[in-house]
Amino acid sequence: MQQDSFYEICGLIASISMVLGYLPQAIQTIRTRNTEGIALPTFLMMAVGGFCFMLQGLLHKPEIIWSLFITNLVTTTCSCIVFVIKMYNDYFKKKA
């Protein structure tokens, strides 16, 4: 039982750290629309990885790992938004 509590606490700390570490950059990028220093493959792979971790948390047996699912839902959503903004900016830069 003690190991299960440690496992849950580690998962919650990791989840909170990931979101708090990632969210400020995503919010700044979404707010300013400045994607100049962002590598497109990075955000694509982060979205794919986050989606796979979401599935892992959701499909885990015997129970769903909510901390894994919710954390990666947030980071995957932000990664997809930043990816779309980056694609949009790169497309219109080439046109101009």
Characterization of this structure:
The protein has about 100 residues and is mainly α. Helix content is about 85%, strand content about 0%. It is built from three helices and no strands. It starts with a helix and ends with a helix. The relative contact order is 0.16. The mean pLDDT is about 90.
Strand and helix map with partners:
Layout: H1 2-32, H2 40-59, H3 66-95
Number of helices: 3
Computed CA radius of gyration, to the nearest angstrom? 16 Å
* Poorly predicted runs: none
Give the proportion of residues in helices.
over 70%
State the total count of DSSP E strands.
Answer: 0
Alpha carbon gap, first and last residue: 61 Å
Class inferred from helices and paired strands: mainly alpha
Q: Which percent range describes the beta-strand content?
A: under 5%
Order of helices and strands: HHH
Mean pLDDT: 88
What is the overall silhouette? elongated
Sheet bearing the most strands, described? none
Summarize this entry quickly:
The chain is mostly helical and 96 residues long. Helices cover 84% and strands 0% of the residues.
Q: Key terms for this structure?
A:
96 residues; 3 helices; mainly alpha
